[in-house]
Amino acid sequence: MSVEKLKKVLSNELDDLKEKGTLKGKETIVSGVKRGDSEKGTRYFLLDYPGKEFIRLNSNSYLGMSIREEVIKAEEEAAEVYGAGPGAVRFISGTFKGHIDLENRLASFHGRESAMLFSSAYTTVMGTLAPLITDETIVISDELNHNCIINAIRLSRPKNKSIYKHLNMEGLEEEIKKTIGTCKRLIIVTDGIFSMRGDNAPLNVIMDIAKKYDSSFEENIIVVVDDSHGVGAFGKTGRGTEEYTGAKVDLLIATLGKGLGVNGGYVVGDSVITQYLREKAPFYIYSNPITPPEAAAALKALEILDSPVGIKLLEHLRNVTNRLTDGLVNLGYETIMSEHPVVPLMVRDTKKTADLVAYLKENGVLATGLNYPVVPKGDEEIRFQVCADHTDKDIDYVLGVLKEYKQSRG
Question: Alpha-carbon distance 11 to 19, whole Å?
Fold first, then answer.
């Protein structure tokens, strides 16, 4: 059967994206990694730029765990014992001891009764929210929540949903008041760290508001937080936005693929809730888990994070993050002040964003430009992501490139 008519429609849509400047286009292919030292951090090689070294400022591996020898060794040793993959979904025969060990350690790390692994943080959000949202549930969401939260709400078809302006706690409280008497269960869902901006939700305030109105709902107010960019990168000991704000939410979702540098996602909370999710979450039931080697690598990364070595990595991460943020301000660039290693350079123009990304790449710096619809119109930016394997000299080099750009192109 011919698909020529479909191809024409899709090609026109792709051309439209290109015209608007929002086409993601060809993916960058990393072909090699060169470990750094105290002077010069990790360098990356790209397939289309043979021999050229790049500083990677668009990685989620905030602590550099993905290239630590101890983490790699743990993964290799587990592969020798268990093989490369799980071979089945968990309820059949795909649960390995490494999965249980990791879940127990994650629960302990976050001070919860139970933890539950998923194949990714995206599927964790989808798999957690969908079973908990009934036709007698209303969901209230921050307007800048991640795409996974938006799609999870759409998939779940709640009785109703409402959006409050970004970080507007008065707006959140007003939306709660409107729902009293109209539903049995209310779910407040938010990112911990907003990945495009690096700012954080005031979880302590959100929990206080939720407790204030909880008795008005037959099945409680449940606060669900996706802190994938917070855990392993934020807070004195890397416990994320909860630690930073001094709060403890009802269900905390995070990833193994950012601060911990491996792969997979998880949720921690009350054991009754996680037991329910194991029975009801299709993204868990019908998807293979992370591999036993990945579980071993994530467990080792978590052990490193929860140690004096982890504390030093986090301290260094904060220092180089502040170095970049202060440098941008001194150069006259606009940024959003935060202690998180996502450091946005606000360009506020799609074509200028693309131009700056290209200039940085020409000068050996990998950074990501974010345009509409990933960010709202007018919020176009370069998202820099600082990692613990960056050095002071790396940051100074990047600032030097940005200074040259500003002087030559304004």
Answer: 12
